[in-house]
Design goal:
Helix 3 packs parallel to helix 5. 33% of the residues lie in helices and 17% in strands. The chain has 484 residues and is an alpha/beta fold. The chain binds ligand TNX.
Length: 484
């Protein structure tokens, strides 16, 4: 057999080249997958030295066996098994393999921006399915931005009453009720995925000002913001009017007003209460409408509010150098593969504080970047076009000088939604590049095994095309991939 279609690449794979595969009944792929999942003999063995999420999967002509120390490990064994089901003659088989697999990083995330465009629960669930099948274990929901507030907060009813109805380009908005959010959390949990809710502050808060005008500063209209308004439309940001454009960095909460912290406390308190996962993301990116000293005061105080709620704060890398940041704050690096503008200094500050970073290099795994100059969907600012090869060909430990595996909590691939309206749009931008992010998050270091090469990756992804098609995933059939 050629490359087995396993993505992300497993840590250890032995292919029994001459051995008979395991035959499966079933007319369609789905039937064969169901038969494989029905047949696999699963063992939970806490002593198996497979860590919290690892697994062993053994296939020969006589059977399918999976072993793990946890339900999560067995879940990942089943994802691998699903990928291995292959057509053979007029039936289906699983090739004879022996796999021992453990993830490199504990945090393997995808982010979905439901603020620029709103996506209903069903779409979020579909994205959770896609992510979990690639062994991601965190869904970061970007729940607020200038264009809309997307989560019910009982103590602050004006947020959803006044600041949720609209989206970029005049499209309809929406918000998750607490029941919707719980449905998402439960659905994610059943696939071993945690939800990381983000309220982006103190910038990206124009929508807060629609609901509670007394908390918001007047928009700061720089030349860049006016130019973006001219280029992309959506009007000039104006207090009290919904914002439908895509400029960033003009809004700010009032930093020296206690009412702001009462508001943040109400919002974070309810969010902590409805979120079983350990993280609350406080944003902190692109606060160009906030004075830098005020920004530092704000993120320090708010990070401590999160810690006091018993959660671990996460913030975009800008917050790293703020004095008095809660020391457990995890930083999220969104700079380039080659850091610019001191963004690496900011990332290192989280590690110097004793915490870790999540890496999201924008010119590699911002899934909203255009694939090609003439692509209809996506943005361009992060050195687009971003090819599949660029999304793949980097290693987390080689990104930021002084930050190696022990300083890295994990890898996350953000999907910003300025240009995206449907699940098909999301699929098109995500697939196949999301598979590259999955491999950076789960698999051993780039180049450290035969499988962790671009040539191997292209071939394995190509072999997954039929599975993705049968699963209804509207992937981009990039000509960089030899699709089967
Ligand atoms: C940057 S980088 C943003 C978002 C935009 C995105 C579009 C960062 C943390 N923020 O506000 O949606 O670019 O690609």
């Amino acid at each position: 057999m050629s490359q087995p279609a396993i993505v992300p690449a497993p840590a250890h794979l032995r292919i029994a080249a001459d051995a008979e595969p395991f035959g499966l009944p079933g007319a369609e792929r789905d039937d064969a997958i169901a038969a494989a999942l029905d047949t696999v003999e699963e063992t939970v063995d806490a002593d198996a030295a497979l860590g919290a999420e690892g697994y062993r999967l053994t296939v020969d002509a006589f059977g399918l066996r999976a072993e793990a120390a946890s339900e999560a490990g067995l879940f990942y064994a089943r994802q691998t098994l699903t990928q291995l089901v292959a057509p053979s003659g007029d039936g289906w088989v699983v090739p004879a393999v022996a796999i021992t697999d453990v993830p490199r990083f504990a945090y393997r995330g995808v982010m979905l921006d439901v603020a620029r465009h709103f996506f209903p629960v069903e779409t979020v669930e579909a994205y959770i399915d896609r992510a979990a099948a690639l062994k991601f274990n965190a869904l970061h929901l970007h729940l607020s931005d200038d264009q809309g507030w997307r989560i019910q907060i009982d103590s602050r009813p004006e947020l959803t009453a006044r600041a949720s109805a609209t989206a970029v380009g005049g499209d309809a908005g929406g918000f998750f009720t607490k029941d919707d959010y719980r449905r998402i959390v439960d659905y994610a949990a059943s696939r071993h995925v945690i939800v990381v809710p983000e309220i982006d502050m103190p910038g990206h808060t124009h929508a807060v000002g629609l609901a509670y005008p007394e908390l918001a500063e007047e928009p700061v209209l720089s030349d860049e913001i006016l130019a973006t308004a001219r280029e992309y439309g959506g009007g000039t940001p104006t207090s009290g009017t919904p914002y439908e454009g895509i400029a960033v960095g003009f809004s700010s909460l009032k930093i020296h007003d206690e009412a702001t912290y009462d508001f943040v406390s109400d919002v974070l308190g309810e969010l902590a209460e409805m979120t079983p996962g350990p993280y609350l993301h406080i944003g902190g990116d692109e606060a160009l409408g906030t004075d830098p000293a005020d920004f530092a005061l704000f993120v320090s105080r708010v990070s401590r509010m999160v810690s006091d709620l018993g959660k671990t704060p996460v913030a975009w890398h800008e917050a790293g150098t703020a004095a008095d940041l809660s020391p457990d704050t995890v930083g999220q690096y969104w700079g380039f593969l080659t850091p610019t503008d001191g963004m690496d200094d900011k990332a290192r500050a989280f590690v110097a504080n004793g915490s870790q970073v999540i890496v999201s290099p924008a010119d590699a795994i911002y899934l909203d970047m255009k694939y090609a100059d003439d692509a209809p969907l996506g943005l361009t600012w992060a050195n687009a076009p971003v090819t599949v090869e660029r999304a793949y060909s980097w290693d987390p430990a080689a990104l930021i000088d002084g930050i190696a595996d022990d300083g890295i909590l994990g890898v996350e691939a953000p999907m910003w939604a300025e240009t995206l309206r449907t699940l098909d749009d999301i699929d098109h931008m995500a697939f196949p590049r999301i598979a590259a992010a999955a491999e950076a998050a789960w698999s051993p270091a780039l180049g450290s095994t035969d499988l962790r090469t671009w040539e191997s990756f292209r071939s394995r992804v190509g072999a997954l095309g039929p599975l993705w098609t049968d699963a209804g995933i509207a992937f981009h059939a990039s000509d960089e991939i030899p699709w089967v």
